């Protein structure tokens, strides 16, 4: 009963954090697709499709980078699964650890992009691909375990389906309409911001902004978790 109560109590900060992380997903996929050449490091469905395109002979698609992103994402997911099952933690504590690691990995990617300046070599590109995909995989595993409805932070297919299927046009009850709409808008905003930053300032800028956002979310979750940690001592 206490565990259920804890999850309920944590919903407000978790929902806010997950919306923020959805914005970061839009930024990361704008960076990877537009800046690294037809690849996603958050949306793995896209990489599977790209592999099919590549196998069919479509030009301009790097199968190697798609495979690298998929492998790194899977590795991050395995680490996230280990994190959520290794010991008993509150939902906020689990998410807090995930945001710490994501901040560090995005910072590494931003540093690599800054070091490369205008010349993004294959080695630097792979470093950014691996860092961001690893971060997204770990986060995805933790978010999946928390199972906050309509906030996967990386995939919108079911969110859009739920928004349409539960709408008044479909004779539905309209449950969680605001949350679903906000999640969709958050990813759009992230993708838009990532595109503008990339086209205006180059690769380091959107990576730096993504790192900053996740760092701020870590601070926010830490502030929320601190009173709970104090009570548990």
Structure description:
With 233 residues, the chain is mainly alpha-helical. The protein has helices spanning 2-9, 11-35, 44-55, 63-86, 91-116, 122-146, 157-165, 177-201, 204-231. The chain has one domain (13-37, 75-231). It contains nine helices and no strands. The model is unreliable at 1-10 (pLDDT under 50).
Topology, please?
Elements lengths: L1 H8 L1 H25 L8 H12 L7 H24 L4 H26 L5 H25 L10 H9 L11 H25 L2 H28 L2
Helix pairs in contact: 2-6, 2-8, 2-9, 3-4, 4-6, 5-6, 5-9, 7-8, 8-9
Brief rundown of the structure:
The protein is an all-alpha fold. The protein has 9 helices and no strands. The two termini are 20 Å apart.
* Most strands sheet: none
How far is the N terminus from the C terminus? 20 Å
Strand tally, please?
0
Shape: globular
Domain count: the total is: 1
Question: What's the helical proportion of residues?
Answer: over 70%
| Class from secondary-structure proportions | mainly alpha
SS field, number of helical segments: 9
- Sequence of secondary-structure elements: HHHHHHHHH
What is the beta-strand fraction?
Answer: under 5%
Question: What is the mean predicted local confidence, pLDDT?
Answer: 86
Low-confidence stretches: 1-10
Rg from alpha-carbon coordinates: 18 Å
Task: Summarize this structure as a short list of keywords or feature phrases.
233 residues, mainly alpha, 9 helices, disordered N terminus
